[in-house]
Amino acid sequence: MSNTEPVHKTLYPFVAIVGQEALKKSLILNVINPGLSGVLIRGEKGTAKSTAVRALAELLPEIDVVDGDPFQSDPHDPRAMAPEVYARYQAGETLPVRRRKVRVVELPVSATEDRVIGTINLETALKEGRRTIEPGLLAAAHRGILYMDEVNLLDDHVVDVLLDSAAMGVNTIEREGVSLSHPARFTLIGTMNPEEGELRPQLLDRFGLCVHVEGLNDPAQRVEVVKRRAAFEDDPEAFAARWADETEKMRTAIAAAIARYPRVQADDAILYAIAERSLKLGVDGHRSDIIMLKAAKALAAWEGREQVTEQDVDGAAALALAHRIRRKPFEDISGSSFS
Questions:
Q1: Strands 63-66 and 97-100, sheet pairing
Q2: pLDDT by residue (tens digit) across 214-246?
Q3: Which of 118, 127, 170, 243 has the fewest CB atoms lying closer than 10 Å?
Q4: Active site residue 287
Q5: 284-314 burial by CB neighbour count: b if 16+ within 10 A, else e?
Q6: Alpha carbon distances (Å) from 61 to 298, 306, 313
Q7: pTM higher than the cut 0.90
Q8: Distant-in-sequence, close-in-space partners of 207: CB < 8 Å, separation ≥ 6
Q9: Active-site residue, selected from the candidate residues 98, 222, 287, 327
């Protein structure tokens, strides 16, 4: 895998997206706490799903990586180092450091398991007695964003592997009796058009949050969408420059929320409020309660607070429960109610 950075392409600014507040908030919350296990964005074509995901990386703080390492190892955190880098660290080597933007790694619909998780270089193992990993997309996505467009069209087994890695933060490759692992902590984002088929309930549940997006119904907003898109296509650099101040403000706010999140507290009254919402809606298991707590804390951090409120729980429930409610046959997720 090449370590050359891709040529930078001017992206449509995240802050210039009209409406779609739930979509934008769900993405920001997953950046504040990647432990939310990602977000599934459901909606018709032309509703800014892909635009928002690709623009998200521009808002994130830059990260330090070990220069020349295809696994995006963190030179300051042994837990986020690939095995070979960790061995160098243990040996006392001074690791070369490079600072760069967070990546959005896109997963092709045709991706195979080997392309996703990587393979073990058996030739090196046989010739040199040294086990090495040929990195896959999960290595490239470590400490970044893994974007799965049309996730409902992916092979179920590939999706299972991705969701397992997202939950554990580790990718394990097993071939011919040889097993190797490397850190794989990333923000998982999936988009889909429900008209092209649904996900299995077991897979739906593995996404921390779910949001349904639709075309805007307000004529003024629709006109604004057209104006902004036309201006961007005429001159992407000039359009991005006009939104540079707002982009920087949001980038600063996100960095502050990430730093604040570990200090956010939720008392027992909040935990009971979370449990009651899951019970009222007949949600199976306890994953929803855990995700709601994380989302509520991320909301509080985003709002500049260190204490979770009932309003945070309401906001978290709207994003964490819709895809987990028991539904009748043919009942759509977007019809779920939280009142």
A1: antiparallel
A2: 888 889 999 999 999 999 999 999 999 999 999
A3: 127
A4: yes
A5: eeebbbbbbbbbbbbbbbbeebeebbeebbe
A6: 17, 21, 27
A7: no
A8: 37, 38, 39, 40, 163, 188, 190, 323
A9: 287
